[in-house]
Amino acid sequence: MKKILIIGGSGFVSTNLIKYIPENWEIFATYNCNSIKNQKIKSFKINLIENPKEIISIIQKIKPDYIVDTVAFPSVDLCEENHLLADKLHIDVTKIISKISSKINSKLLFLSTDAVFEGQLNKKYLETDIAKPVNYYGYTKLKAEEIILLASKNNVVLRTAVIYGANDKSRFTNWILSYLREQKTVDPFIDQHNSPTLVDDLSQAIIKILQNDISGLFHATGPTCVNRYDFALILAKEFGLDSNLIKPVTSLEKKQVAPRPISTCLDSSKLEHSIDFNFKDLETGISFIAS
Ligand SMILES: NC(=O)c1ccc[n+]([C@@H]2O[C@H](COP(=O)([O-])OP(=O)(O)OC[C@H]3O[C@@H](n4cnc5c(N)ncnc54)[C@H](OP(=O)(O)O)[C@@H]3O)[C@@H](O)[C@H]2O)c1
């Protein structure tokens, strides 16, 4: 029986990932503020900012075949305002986890981001393109990637983006849908482009990577390159909501603390070929969550 440890098991991706884990795997997971109710999972509470080294004994006790590390600050702006906290959770904790993981020969899979790229319109980034983050969130995630990939040749880094799904933790889709349902206006950016990723696709890809023992750096996003305004329009159409309530805004008009790249769409064909899997385009993904 395989053993999998999900660090950050209470988060958005992890909650979905758990649905796709084969029945005969033993599941362990950590959480911080949000406890894990699923009876099939042995869970451990840990605050990785306050007690980062506690993760060492948890990993040593379980000796998992696979570790999936999803812990991160979701807020790009928080990382920009508090470098020390971002360094602690994204860099220092990653060093601790990757060191103990390689010592006991666990395969470690880490979720990274399209924010490692500077951003360029009409381009889909490949794994071979040079990373050059424009904000501190992207910088710390890039440092973490380097640590993970150096620690063991069996490790995996997946760069993903704007994850969405039928889940109350799906931030962008929930904002748009809840406002439109209440007849309130929304103002998504028209000048920030990404490749939105269906959380169910990402979960299935992670399981295939582990089962096939694939290693290295991969992009793991949907194929559609879209700005947030057009994303919102597609959502409104699929859910039968009033698209007149969607007002486009530019990054100049609505200031954010951290700078954002203009377009960080990713090409995920390397991963798709490696695991014989296709990520859904945005229309198909949205009709999946609407069904
Ligand atoms: N969501 C996206 O659109 C997106 C896009 C690109 C990349 N990613 C990457 O994908 C990964 C997963 O994203 P997600 O949306 O699933 O994240 P999430 O829902 O915010 O989950 C984060 C997890 O980290 C845990 N955590 C946070 N601070 C912690 C701390 N101090 N100590 C211990 N645990 C802590 C949380 O625990 P509690 O909830 O129990 O506090 C939660 O389980 C992240 O690495 C993120 O950078 C996400």
| Relative strand content | 15-25%
Number of domains: 1
Radius of gyration: 19 Å
Largest sheet at a glance? 7 strands, parallel
Run of helices and strands: EHEEHEHHEHEEHEEHEEHHH
Uncertain spans: none
Please give a structural write-up.
39% of the residues lie in helices and 15% in strands. It is of the alpha/beta class. It has a single domain (3-164, 196-223, 267-280), classed as 3-Layer(aba) Sandwich (Rossmann fold). The strands form 3 sheets. It has a 7-stranded parallel sheet, with helices on both faces. A two-stranded parallel sheet has the order 7-9. Strands 8-11 form a two-stranded antiparallel sheet. Helix 2 runs parallel beside helix 4. The chain starts with a strand and ends with a helix. The mean pLDDT is 97. NADP nicotinamide-adenine-dinucleotide phosphate is lined by residues 8-13, 31-34, 46-49, 70-72, 74, 89, 111, 113, 160-163, 169.
Topology:
Layout: E1 3-7, H1 12-20, E2 26-31, E3 41-45, H2 54-62, E4 66-69, H3 76-81, H4 83-103, E5 107-113, H5 136-151, E6 156-160, E7 163-164, H6 171-181, E8 193-194, E9 197-198, H7 199-211, E10 216-219, E11 226-227, H8 228-239, H9 269-275, H10 282-290
Parallel strand pairs: 1-2, 1-4, 2-3, 4-5, 5-6, 6-10, 7-9
Antiparallel strand pairs: 8-11
Helix pairs in contact: 1-7, 2-4, 4-5, 6-8, 8-10
The structure holds NADP nicotinamide-adenine-dinucleotide phosphate.
